[in-house]
Amino acid sequence: QVQLVESGEGLVQAGGSLRLSCAASGRIFRINTMGWYRQAPGKQRQLVAAITRGGSTNYVDSVKGRFTISRDNAKNTQYLQMNSLKPEDTAVYYCNAEVVDVGLTRGDYWGQGTQVTVSS
């Protein structure tokens, strides 16, 4: 079994900052790509940021220059630092990890979701 546990939800004012964390645990052999998705009411879930094991990153255009994704491979943990938040960033944020478990089976795993609300 592999589990992803998120933390860092909150209500912030526009222009503020928030940091989300996502820790993976269980029968992990290797984690390849990790990332963050978000889903606003009535919208499709979209990829916000992703990071490879080697540290290469990509971001959706709307968050470039404001959000930073990072990871600590020793702790199997990823982070999303969100600065200059806008009301449009309000959504439930889900972390994701591409995991190869100890049985060498690949799977995609999801965190439980955390609410980020940005007030104007």
Q: In angstroms, what separates the terminal alpha carbons?
A: 41 Å
Total beta strands: 11
Number of helices: 0
Approximately what portion of the residues adopt beta-strand conformation? over 45%
Structure description:
By secondary structure, the protein is mostly beta strands. Helix content is 0%, strand content 62%. The chain contains no helices and eleven strands. It has strands spanning 2-7, 10-13, 18-26, 28-39, 46-51, 57-59, 67-72, 77-82, 91-101, 106-110, 114-119. The strands form two sheets. Strands 2, 4, 5, 6, 9, 10 and 11 form a seven-stranded mixed sheet that branches. A four-stranded antiparallel sheet has the order 1-3-8-7, with no helix packed on it. The radius of gyration is 14 Å and the shape is elongated. The mean pLDDT is 96.
Describe how the helices and strands are arranged.
Elements: E1 2-7, E2 10-13, E3 18-26, E4 28-39, E5 46-51, E6 57-59, E7 67-72, E8 77-82, E9 91-101, E10 106-110, E11 114-119
Parallel strand pairs: 2-11
Antiparallel strand pairs: 1-3, 3-8, 4-5, 4-9, 5-6, 7-8, 9-10, 9-11
What are its keywords?
120 residues, elongated, single chain, four-stranded antiparallel beta sheet, seven-stranded mixed beta sheet, 62% strand
Short description, anyone?
The chain has strands at 2-7, 10-13, 18-26, 28-39, 46-51, 57-59, 67-72, 77-82, 91-101, 106-110, 114-119. By secondary structure, the protein is an all-beta fold.
